[in-house]
Amino acid sequence: MSAPDELGQDYLEVRDLTVDFEGFKAVDGVDLTLLQGRLHFLIGPNGAGKTTLVDALTGLVPATGLARYRNRDLLTMKPHQIVRSGIGRTFQTATVFEHLSVLQNLDIAGGVHRKAWRLPLARRGTPDYVQHALETIGLTDLRDRPAGVLAHGQKQWLEIGMLLVQDAKVMFLDETVAGMSHEERDATGELLQRIGSERTTVVIEHDMDFVRSFADVVTVMHAGKVLAEGSLAEIQSDARVQEVYLGRAATAVADTVEATYIEEGV
Ligand SMILES: Nc1ncnc2c1ncn2[C@@H]1O[C@H](COP(=O)(O)OP(=O)(O)OP(=O)(O)O)[C@@H](O)[C@H]1O
């Protein structure tokens, strides 16, 4: 297989990534190659290390190993440098400014790439890239409403819009569809497919219906390590994955395994 850059694709290469919390390895020697244009899903039981992995790649916790993006190692960079290099993320809890309008939230997020003296210029009108983001996330009609009145799903879409105006080329989304209705969840998946062709998208997710509908590649983490990677069908048939999830009656991935197998295993 050709190297990712020979294909003209953007990618993030993670090698031997380790996060050590005073002797406890929350992330333990993780290798990942994340390619532009694919929806990567990161799944695994609670405590598997998914969020810590993303924390490490966005500069929020120190890590060892390598995270190469456009010939720079993210692990050597500060969080604001990582954002400016095109890496963006959302958090499990929406982090929009509730008292500011949708438009103001986007304007502030877009300020990441503007010099301080140019910030006031944005108030003279809606910049094209903000308008475009509003349309993409479907919130044009709500642009002047305070973000606090948005429905749960709409807040998550606003957060995705904030990544768009930051021009994030790599997007990490942490449990974006948690608490969404079926309609919101499907709309979110379709949004990610639309914007994902030009980006590298990694979604941490427990909602297996969502994974089943939209994942191109699934990585299963367990105890800080990558347990398996592949299509959902490949993951489902992996004996180690079944072993980790079976017996955890309430966990999400159990329902990805054939029903008969679940009945026998639990
Ligand atoms: N700052 C920290 N110091 C010590 N241990 C931590 C710290 N942050 C996370 N951990 C531990 O690291 C492990 C991985 O946690 P993490 O939140 O990354 O898991 P996760 O896979 O994202 O789980 P969930 O699906 O519940 O969000 C857990 O055992 C957690 O308690």
UniProtKB/TrEMBL annotation:
GO terms for cellular component: plasma membrane. Residues 12-248 form the ABC transporter domain. GO terms for molecular function: ATP binding; ATP hydrolysis activity. Signal peptide: none annotated. Keywords: ATP-binding, Nucleotide-binding, Transport. CDD domains: ABC_Mj1267_LivG_branched. InterPro entries: ABC_AA/LPS_Transport, ABC_transporter-like_ATP-bd, ABC_transptr_urea_ATP-bd_UrtD, BCA_ABC_TP_C, P-loop_NTPase. The keyword Heme does not apply. Pfam families: ABC_tran (PF00005), BCA_ABC_TP_C (PF12399). This is Urea ABC transporter ATP-binding protein UrtD. It comes from Nocardioides seonyuensis. The gene is urtD.
